[in-house]
Amino acid sequence: METIPKIISAPAAASATSKTARPVPPRPRQYDARLARWMVTPLADTAVTPNHLTTVRLIVGLACAWAFAKGGYAMANLGALLLVLSNFIDHTDGELARISGKTSRIGHFYDLASDAFVTVLLFGGIGMGVDAMAPGHFPLPVPLSASALGWIAGFAVALIFFLRMRIEERVGKAGTKQASVGGFETEDVLYLMPLVTLFDGTRGFLIAAAIGAPLFALLVVADYVRVMRRPLPVKADESVNAAAAPAAPMAPVAPVAPMAPAAFAADAEIERALDAVDFDGVTREFKSQDAFVYMEKFLPQSVTEQLIAAARAVTPSVNRNYLPGHKQGGSVSRHTLDELAPFVAELYRSPALIGFLERLAGEKLLPSPQEDPHAYALYYYTRPGDHIGWHYDTSYYKGRRYTLLLGVVDQSSCKLEYRLHTRNPGATQVDGAVAYPPGALVFFDGDKLHHRITPLGDNEERISLTFEYVTDPRMGTWQRFISNMKDAVAYFGFRQVFRQIFGRTKR
Question: For the Fe2OG dioxygenase domain, which residue ranges apply (predicted)?
Answer without folding.
Answer: 372-471
